[in-house]
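Why Cadmium-translocating P-type ATPase? Reviewers of the renewal asked for a concrete example.
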Amino acid sequence: ATPTAILAGSGVAAASGVIFKGGDVLERLARVTVVAFDKTGTLTRGEPRITEVLPVPGIAGDRLLGLAAAVEAGSTHPLARAIVAEHARSGGKDTPAEDVRTVAGGGVTGVVAGMRVAAGNRRFLQGEGVQVPDDLQEPAPGETAVHLSEAGCYRGTLVLQDGVRDGASDIVRYFQERGVACHLLSGDRQESARTIARQVGIENVRGDLLPADKGTLIEDMQRGGAVVLMAGDGINDAPALATAAVGCALAGGTDIAIETSDLVLAKGDLARLRLAHRVARRTMAVVR
Ligand code: ADP
Ligand code: MG
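Here is what the prediction returned.
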């Protein structure tokens, strides 16, 4: 491979908002056979809106939101940002939380006014020893539920909805037309993952995944001979981004995602991935 051709290829892409970290990335990108997409913040905009606040009887809606905002304040997760923003918009006061911990793919815990508060998905709250009611109306497909507990008691649920990102269907179609299989790997519920997948034209969907699971699935595919590109935005994708032959981070995502990836798309613009792939294929055709 001639370094000059590779450098030229990288240069073209950099001018267009794609950053390659190292010349060998082009080589791998040109040979990609599978693209695995993260859902939240990658195929979706990552700007969810709260559509419902559902406290248990005896708890006010704004108190539930305030509890959630208190423990989510330090988190960069799109769900956390939406909760904090909605709390501020509704004029809620900032409540300090201590000892805040984030569990990737699960949620957050912290101590608010002396009581342990947890916010996250059903599995995460169950792991906290919290009984989330079974008969709870599941959110509509495409919606995500964030459950809340205080001192080990279930306090209610916030429902959030996120839209599909511009260009998501286009990038999926682009790869599929070139024989590159597209997968969706999500930490969100299977139904939510499936709904977004259907909207963008992806058939291979895996939901309810822990961050490490995403990495393992990619490892398995690569052991089977696939050359996998993983596109993701968040802290939760770091293991998958690092494992994939090509890790692609959407800028605007987290710093750790950008650090662990080989390819960064400016402004989270998925169309730039197509550009990067074209540049890689042309460059490697020249090189070979
Ligand atoms: P995706 O793979 O779709 O990008 P993530 O791995 O980021 O999803 O998160 C998976 C799930 O973990 C979310 O759908 C949510 O239920 C839960 N979760 C993660 N972080 C948080 C948080 N800060 N607050 C509440 N829930 C969270
Ligand atoms: Mg994500």
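The domain at 49-161 is CATH 3.40.1110.10 (Calcium-transporting ATPase, cytoplasmic domain N). This is the kind of structural detail the renewal will allow us to pursue systematically.
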